[in-house]
Amino acid sequence: MREKIVRKLLRVLLSLCLLFIATSPTLLAQQAPADPVLGAMSKELNRSMRNFKNVAVPPYFLSYQLTDNRAVNIVASFGTLTSTSDLNTRVLDLDLRVGDYKLDSTHPLREDTSSDEMMDRLETPKMPLDDDPMSLRVALWQATEQRYRRAVERLQQVQANVQVKVEAEDTSGDFSHEEAETYSEPIAPFSIDTTGWEQRLRKVTKPFAQHKEILEASANVDAEIETRRYVSSDGTVLRMSSPFYRLIITATAKADDGMELPLHQTYMSFSERGLPDDRTLSQDVERMIGTLLQLVKAPVAEPYTGPAILSGRASAVFFHEIFGHRIEGQRQKNEDEAQTFKKKINQPVLPEFLSVYSDPTLRALGKTELIGYYPFDDEGVRSRRVTIVQNGVLKEFLMSRTPISGFDHSNAHGRRQQGYQVAARQSNLIVQSSKTVSREELKKLLIDQIKSAGKPYGLLFDDIEGGFTFTQRVIPNAFNVRPTVVYRIYPDGREELVRGVDLIGTPLTSFSKIVAADDDVAVFNGVCGAESGWVPVSASAPGLLISQIEVQRKEKSQERAPLLPPPPASMEGK
Amino acid sequence: MQFGRFKRFRSGSLLGVALLAVTALLAQTHDDIALRAMKDELARSMTQLQLPQMDKPYFLAYRIQDIEQQEISATLGSLTSGDGTAFRNRMISVELRVGDYTVDNSNFFSMQRLRGGSAGMFMGGVEQGSVDDDYGQIRRQLWIVSDRQYKRALEDLSAKRAALKMRNGGEPVPDFSKEIPVTLVQARTILISSSTQLQSLAKDLSAVFRSAPEIERSSVTITRRDVFTRYVNSEGTTFTRWEPLIKLEVSARTQAGDGLPISNSFTVYGRTVPDLPPKETLLAHAQRLSSLIVKLRSAATLDRYNGPVLFEGSAAGELFLQQFGTKLAASRAPMSDNPQFEVFFNQMLERLGGSSFQEKLGARVLPAFLSVRDDPQETAFKGATLLGASSIDDDGVKTRATVLVDHGTLKTLLTSRTPVRGLLQSSGSRRGFGAVASNLFVESQKAMSDGDLHKELLGLAKDRGLDYAIIVRHVGSGSAASFMDIAKQMANQGGAADSLPEVFKLYPDGHEEALRGVHIGELPAEAFKEIVATGETPVLYNDEIIPRISSIFSGGITSAGETLPVASCIAPSLLFEEVSLAKTQGPFPALPVSPSPLAEK
User: Fold this and answer.
1) A563 to chain B: which residues are within 8 Å by CB?
2) Is A549 helix (H, G, I), strand (E, B) or coil?
3) Cβ <8 Å between A85 and B87
4) Minimal Cα distance from B80: which residue of A?
5) Residue pairs between chains A and B whose CB atoms are closer than 8 Å
6) Given A135, A568, A573, which is nearest B78 (Cβ)?
7) Cα gap B576→B520, rounded to integer Å
8) Can you tell me the distance from the alpha carbon of A514 to that of A524, in angstroms, rounded to the nearest whole number?
């Protein structure tokens, strides 16, 4: 009863707040925000825009994004501590545009190989870490002036380039108009028990040292709090603050033939308490050791074409690599890109039972937290769920504020690592199936496929460490994902661990061969690297049965295992 | 108004308190677990590491460096980095040689496999170790790296032997010199220097520029790095060495009304915080730097000058160390399995390192009244710590004084254990990846008082019909100047040359006039033979110095993320008969549209 009242009260309060925000953005913008850093940013932004009004080529858009990051990183290996670091940084990302929304100084230069972005990054002044408004404003001023000079120069190049080259296929503008937004989160609390984790990571990595086959083993805790502040000449003022904790255990064994066999285990949470406890960790380490020792002795897989199952985790990585990167908006515009899906809007691209969403508003899927969550993207656009594929039909691309033909607005997927230029990137990619079977059922379906294709066995990809994909035109448009745990499934249902496979293929063919999905949805949390740097993303998917996949042998180290046995672990052991 | 936020020291002596030195004899050979693990694994590798029918290692060295470092920087009274604690890590490196002292896997670069003997060391011989003193883990890492390096060394040696068969001629120079084994254990002093003291120093120095809105950018950077090295090799050498270093740099830049960039900086080095000048002195330096830059914005310039130039005070050591001192070290260019590439590669290395004096042994390189000595045994000069001082070098060779130039004649060069033709032994000069100067003493037998030197300068100018002469008091652009110039050239990035930050016209009546936008046109090594006189007061100048790049292929690097060695140069003012100065040409960047926020009332 009491709880109900409290909730009701909260709801009223919340709607009041929302109302306040919705009705009085101008009021907020006029008052100097209480945050002295945001205050300095707004003040300098307004002053710059005012002073630039009188120049021949004034900027039409200016934004400052300041990212405060405290990162504690602890690494241990084989029971000993490798390093602990605790670093505060504050990085400025500045977007200054001259020209207009249609054609501006950021317009891609065709056949250009210069390194403007690199220069910008090198010359951006170091930002004061404390909140002294004056030194912050001086640094913002330096960056603005420097960027302005380069923007004016670049606009001239752009104008010449547009004249000289053939007309672009996609004539959409360079920048979209978006709503002004005001949003403020309190600075999130952050805690990390550094000494405790140092001790735990020593303990976690110690068991690896007992096995001569395991040549590398380490555990790495990364605890970060990031506070992003954003102001733009559109009138947007944002402050977001969120901690993030990640633990990665990595171990690599070497087979007698020199093949290196890596395994990874990743845990991620928005709170320190969300990381696993000691018992879970030591169980997982024992399991990793068990798998590694089996892998070392496992037979080497042969090149193979035929049916296979991708487990939920494997499907998630598969979709992130070969689907997710191809629906990033700017790739439909850049004429160096293959533009796999450019002309496929409202056409079927996947089997009818599959739908795909990109949803940065989700913090968790079931019990698993999703690392691709954010309330606003790096261009100040409010995040929302985007339907990419509905019942197999392509509906929308992931959009930043760079329009493409047919899509004039951002859908809040403009993202970047600090110091890079924004591009449309993935957030939380969710693959849903309207028709599912149990995991056992899926295996049965696989066996049916094996039999009807007359193959001696099929494959089960249980875990994948990541992969890469080429989306450009000049190189074959293929993908390569690196499975770490792969089984052969024989027609009698027997499973046999194999090693040394890479999953390869071309995207469109692979999508058309998906025949069934199971109900075992798994999440892959990771960081994804592309032109706008490394960004946290997640992908989740059910296990999938594919009627035909292709694997090749993994590139293998030619170096044999160490000549001498491991040295004694202690002086007494000699 | 903002100044009130920063606590100021009541006196400079407080800085001394920043350093609480606790001496502990950690390095006693018997008790050091790391050293014990190194010796045990070294013994095992030397006796057992061998592939059937292949060479065993003939030389193996292990090096473990415990590094503690921190960079603290500030601008306008606010920290921009280093608000936390120092970062600690340990680097492990393995130098393994197969073959023998005459021909081994080093000094070789394979074009076919894009790597080489010591390039292999460069790539693979260094690894991050554990900061825990864990016997088992240290041996485990040495085991893995030794195994990897052994296999690479065998491959490199066989490729090198094959390449050697394809060529003839020339008397071979050995690949590695034999040196006397040394045992030298230096105590480690653990420094508990407080970051907060250095943070407030950086903040307070940087706050000086708040009163100069004309200055566009300014910064103070303090880099502190303590390195404790443990080294053992298969010849019986063991050493431990503790080398702390602290560097403080204040720099500022702006533009003149015509857009000309104006920048200036000063850097001080020391082993520990008390080696730095007192805070009042540093504040006064920063203040002077600030007003000099502001004044230079409206200073005169000149179109061209060919005539006598006096490099006065620390500018003499600055010029000498960077333009002359770098040529006093020998380095070996690697051979390759592709002779055409070898020619190209060696030319490139030569350009990157500037020309060397290797072909000038026995030649006149300075006037007869000048001699140059490198002396790592000297630890102090007039109370100031000499930064090249060390009892042992990075190859584990005992250091010694070397007379490099005797009455103008080049006698020898500084060497590491990689011999070059005519210089077959090490002079104990390996610092980092190659041989470099330690403490260079430039000694003159033609010294004059400052007044006489100015008279001499004006006299030389008058002889040439000039109504003024030139004094340079700061050359600027720092350690990597020559290197950067060439790198820029190679990257085809012309840009304006760096102007001399402190250059003055001296008129016969004794008055001076500061100049802006003037740079040294050309100053070849030969110009140093035309030094006509020197001052009588030697001045100490410290700077980082880059070993000759080709050395990387001889001995590899000793640790990843290695900083450059710092050398000390003690030289009197140097009067050159002729130096060309030229006006710095544009195009210069446009001036800012808005004034600095500092200019707001």
Assistant:
1) 49-51, 147, 150
2) strand
3) yes
4) A128
5) 145
6) A135
7) 13
8) 20
Residues paired with A240 in a beta bridge: A228
CA distances (Å), origin B136, targets A282, A365, B40: 21, 43, 11
Closest CA to B400 of B414, B420, B421, B417: B414
| Side chain identity at residue B101, one-letter code | Y
Cα–Cα distance between B394 and B268 in angstroms, integer? 24
Cα Rg of chain B (Å, integer): 26
Strands (E), A531-568: 533-541, 544-553
Of B49, B589, B594, which has the smallest distance from its Cβ to A51's Cβ?
A: B594
The separation between CA B234 and the C-alpha centre of its own chain, rounded to angstroms, equals 29
What is the β-pairing status of strands A479-489 and A495-498? antiparallel
| Cross-chain Cβ contact B78/A142 below 8 Å | no
Domain A194-297 carries which CATH code? 3.30.2290.10
Give chain B's mean pLDDT.
85
Structure tokens, B379: 């630890």
Q: Supply the pLDDT for residue B586.
A: 79
Q: What is the mean pLDDT of residues A457-463?
A: 93
Mean pLDDT calculated for residue range A465-487:
66
How far does the CA of residue B598 sit from the closest CA of chain A (Å)?
7
How far is CA A230 from its chain centroid? 21
Q: Is the pLDDT of residue B339 over 80?
A: no
pLDDT over 70 for what percent of chain B? Answer: 84
Q: Kindly report the backbone phi and psi dihedral angles of residue B385, in degrees, each rounded to the nearest multiple of 5, phi listed first.
A: -70, 135
Helix (H) or strand (E) holding B474: strand B469-474
Nearest to A57 by CA among A12, A97, A21, A113: A97
Distances (CA, A) of B562 to B193, B222, B227, B275, B559: 22, 17, 10, 22, 6
Residue for token pair 């080489």: B116
Write the DSSP string, B338-355: -HHHHHHHHHHHHHHH--
Chain A stretch 194-213, residues whose beta carbon is closer than 8 A to a beta carbon of chain B = 202, 209
For residue A80, the chain B residues in CB contact (below 8 A) are: 130-132, 134, 137
Let me know the angle formed at the C-alpha of A78 by A77 and A80, rounded to the nearest 5 degrees.
65
Going by their DSSP bridges, the two strands B304-311 and B566-571 should be labelled as unpaired
Smallest CA-to-CA distance from B3 within A137, A35, A134 is with A134
Place of tokens 């544009």: B586
Structure tokens at B458: 């004006």
Alpha-carbon distance B428 to B398, whole Å? 6
Question: Look-up: residue for tokens 């209480």?
Answer: A34
pLDDT at A12: 37
Given the structure tokens 């009188």, which residue do they identify? A54
For the packed helices B33-48 and B135-165, what is the interaxial angle rounded to 10 degrees?
Answer: 40
The chain B residue lying nearest A570, using CA atoms, is B136
The structure tokens 């399991």 sit at: A287
Which amino acid makes up residue A61?
F
Interchain contact A569–B (C-beta under 8 A)? yes
pLDDT at B26 over 50: no
DSSP annotation string for B209-228: GGG-TT--EEEEEEEEEEEE
> What is the rounded end-to-end Cα distance, in angstroms, of chain B?
11
User: Residue A23: its pLDDT value, please?
Assistant: 35
Domain coordinates of chain B in residue numbers? 2-296, 304-583
The CA–CA distances, whole Å, from A300 to A255, A261, A457, A556 equal 10, 11, 14, 11
Q: Which CATH superfamily is domain B2-296 in?
A: PmbA/TldD superfamily (3.30.2290.10)
Q: Which ipTM score applies to this complex?
A: 0.86
Beta strand B261-270 pairing with B566-571 = unpaired
Question: Which candidate, B597, B134, B23, places its Cα nearest to that of A40?
Answer: B597
Nearest to A138 among B44, B142, B596 (CB): B596
Return the structure tokens found at B443.
């000694």
Q: Are A129 and B78 in contact (CB under 8 A)?
A: yes
